[in-house]
Structures are given as C-alpha cells and as structure tokens.
Design a protein that fits this description.
disordered C terminus; single chain; disordered N terminus; elongated; Alpha-Beta Plaits; 5-stranded antiparallel sheet; about 35% helix; about 450 residues; Aminopeptidase; 3 domains; alpha+beta; 14 helices
C-alpha cells in the first residue's frame, strides 16, 4: 500500500515555546562560561587553561562528528535506504484474496501489518459489511516465491477466516468503479452482454437463464420476486424478459454489496428494453459472391423459419440432433440475446441463408452453425465459426465447444481450420469438439473480409 504525502503536510510545525527554552539555555550557557572565564583568568596560567580547554572542545567535536558518520547516525533517508534491500527487480505475482474479519477497530490494521512483514503490497481494497463482520477483498502483489498457502496462513494468524485466494492478472488492476461503469456501458449497448457482465462483476461463477415458458410453450414455473433472492452462494434475479437469472458459485457466499450490484445491472437492462447492435460486415465468398454478416434477434424469427423450410431434413437433423419437426420451436430461444449471440448471413437481396449461435451455458460456451443447403461448401460456415470464436474470446471465454454427429465432416473441418488446440470426445455417434481459445491465435485470424475464402 503506497502512502503519498504532500510537500505542505511534510513541513514541521513551528513551536515558539521551544524557541524560548533554547534562548534561555543560550543565555545561561553564556553566563556560566563568563563566570568560569573570570575565575580562571585570576589564577596563574589562566590564559593557557582557556586555550587548552578550547583545543579539547574542538577535538571532542571532531571526534563526535566522525563517530556519528561511521556508526549509523546518517540522515533518515540514507539509513532507511541502507536497511531496506532493493527489491525493484524481484519477480512478483498478483493475487485476489477475500477474507472475513471481525468488525472491530484495529482488525484491518493488524491484517495489513501481517501482510507487510512478507513484503506484500496491497494494490486495492474493498470492504463488504456483514451483520457479524466484514469481508475484505484485496488485490495483492507479492514476491513470486510466496505461495497461496503462506498467504492464507499469514491471514489466518492475523484474525482472518473463510479466506479465498486465486491468481490475478493485469485485467484485475482496473479499480472497481471503473470496471462496473465499463460493464454497465457494455450492457447498455447490447442485451446479450448481461450474463457476461454479471460473470465478470462477481468473479468465477455460473450464470443460468431460466425462461418462464419452455420451447414447447409450457410454463416452467421459474419465478423470482422483483427484489430478487440472496441465499448464501446463490442468488436469483428476475429476468426482464420473463423467467429467472440464476447466479451460483461454490467457493464463497455472496455479500449484500455484490447482490446490490447485480440487481443494479439487471435493473439497467430492464429499463433499456430490447436492443442489439445493427452493424453489418461484408464478406466475399471464393466464387466472388458478396454476402453480409450481422447480429440477429427475435425480429429475424420469420426469416429464420423461412430458411428452415428451405433446408433438407439432413441439414436440420445435423443441427438440432432431434426430431426435425421440433426444429422451429428452438428458434425463439436461440434468437434471444439473453441466451447468447446469434449471427445471420444474408445475400445482397436480403435473404437469410445461415445462422451461427454462441450460447452461454453456465460456465461453458457452445457454438453452433446451420447453413442452407444451396449455400453449403462455399466457406460460409468457416467464416461464421471464425467470427463466433472471436466474439467468444472478446467475451473472456476460455474455450468453446460444438456438438455434432461424428459423420459431420464439414463441421469438424471448420473447427480444425481455426488453428486452435482441439479436444475430441465421441459417445454413441455424438461428437463434442472443444476449442481452447488462445487470444494470440484468435487475434491472428484472417480479417473478416477474407475469412470467407477458407
């Protein structure tokens, strides 16, 4: 923790009493010296005694000066520099830590002192009041050799309990008000950002959206009061679109402060209503045909149903993994920004010919594609997959997975074309391909205008 002291506050106060005492001491010393001099001057060899005394005083003063400089009586700044080792080049690590302390004077100071003994720098600190204590949340910079177990033991010895520690990175250096404002801005611009904003606001947690009506049109019974429900490690918030938004994390109970922040984000989303970015991105297919990629939502339901009608049963079966007759029922869910992001591919005439979905599935992220039969094998699927993967990386997802049939060689080839590490799992003809998102690899994808040429 860094203390900054202004030049004004560093000036020493002037005390007139000290000046009077020093002046009185000076006059007393002069009087005593005059009395001694008069006494010595009236005795034989008095002049020589005075000269000898002066020489002795000069020698004593010289010896005292040499001794002070040689035995640590240096100015405070130099002495401090000599005592403190230079740790500017020492490797460090960032940690996020939360611990609960008693709500009593001095408990936080004791905790900070204990951390300072291990050269741990407190970069940020938040306090979350509770009924029987306080949750303190720290961002720490410590020597790299200091382990999480050492930090936890230090905090416990200083009075902290229910301590949770995890590694942090440079993104955590942003102060909380700035981060909250950024999340609110993203939520205001795009309704699909709310689940991601909640996840980034509350740390590692699982966000689920439970609609009030199932895909078959039946009520699900999911309901939350307007004020929401806080229950330890879970909270339930009313979804502005109907249903419930659930937030869970296993490692630490939510505090009332976190609950209030989450409610504020959901209320902002409710007040702004439906919204989605409407930008279009042109793509040129290898055959020279021009298409556009844009965000889609519930307003595209009619066009998506028309595309379904033009698709073969095999195409619908590969996408939805179930009865073809149920395919239309899923569109309302898939096009809702509450459950993810959907990209639509349109021809120059405005005809919708492909859909790509990025679906929030708790802590996981699913990616899915469907291209109309007449436009398959033109690079549209690869272009959609590349753009959806970029969106997932921008949203902070660690990986994405696609569920398809093992016979769907086109989807497998498109996933391999991303150039990312892949994991394959096959069970009873169902193939799950997981791509690990390396930000460097994702940012090195071809520009959007060229991605359709794969």
């Amino acid at each position: 923790m860094t203390d900054v002291t202004s030049a004004k506050s560093s000036r020493r106060p002037h005390h007139w009493r000290r000046d009077l005492v020093e002046l009185a001491a000076l006059f007393t010393a002069v009087a005593v010296a005059d009395a001694i001099a008069n006494t010595i001057a009236h005795v034989p060899d008095g002049v020589f005694l005075l000269v000898a005394s002066a020489v002795a005083l000069v020698a004593t003063a010289t010896f005292h000066t040499w001794w002070a400089r040689s035995h640590g009586h240096a100015p405070p700044e130099r002495a401090a520099a000599a005592e403190e080792p230079d740790t500017s080049d020492e490797p460090t690590a960032l940690w996020r830590m939360r611990t609960t302390v008693r709500d009593e004077p001095g408990t936080l100071a004791k905790l900070c002192t204990a951390l300072a003994t291990h050269r741990v720098d407190i970069l940020t600190l938040q306090t979350h009041p509770l009924a029987d204590g306080t949750v303190d949340e720290f961002l720490l910079r410590s020597p790299a050799a200091l382990q999480a177990s050492d930090l936890s033991a230090t905090v416990s010895a200083a009075g902290g309990c229910r301590t949770w520690i995890e590694r942090a990175d440079a993104h955590d250096l942003v102060d909380t008000p700035t981060r909250v404002l950024g999340l609110a801005t993203r939520t205001a611009l795009d309704a699909a950002e709310l689940p991601l904003a909640l996840r980034q606001l509350l740390g590692r947690c699982t966000i689920t959206s439970r609609p009030a009506v199932s895909v078959t049109g039946r009520p699900t019974g999911e309901f939350a009061p307007v004020e929401g429900v806080l229950d330890g490690t879970s909270m339930r918030l009313r979804d502005p679109n109907g249903g419930t938004i659930g937030v869970e994390r296993p490692y630490l109970p939510f505090t009332p402060t976190e609950f209030a922040r989450a409610r504020a984000l959901v209320e902002l989303d409710a007040r702004l209503g439906p919204r989605i970015p409407r930008g279009q991105q042109p793509l040129t297919l290898p055959q020279g045909e021009e298409i556009t990629v844009r965000r889609a939502d519930e307003d595209d339901l009619e066009a998506a149903l028309a595309m379904h009608a033009r698709c073969s049963e095999r195409t619908l079966g590969l996408r939805y993994h179930g009865p073809v007759g149920d395919a239309d029922r899923y569109l309302t869910h898939l096009l809702s920004p509450r459950f993810g992001r959907t990209l639509a591919v349109c021809t120059t005439s405005g005809r919708l010919v492909a859909l790509g979905h990025l679906l929030w599935d708790g802590e996981e992220t699913e990616i899915a594609l469907m291209v109309e039969d007449a436009y398959q094998q033109r690079g549209i699927g690869a272009a959609l997959l590349g753009r959806l993967t970029e969106l997932a990386a921008e949203a902070g997802c660690a990986h994405v997975y696609a569920v398809t049939q093992s016979s769907n060689t086109g989807m497998v080839a498109a996933m391999r074309g991303l150039g990312l590490p892949l994991d394959y799992q096959v069970e009873e003809g169902t193939l799950v391909v997981t791509a690990m998102l390396d930000p460097t690899a994702v940012h090195s994808l071809p520009p959007h205008g060229d991605s359709g040429r794969r």
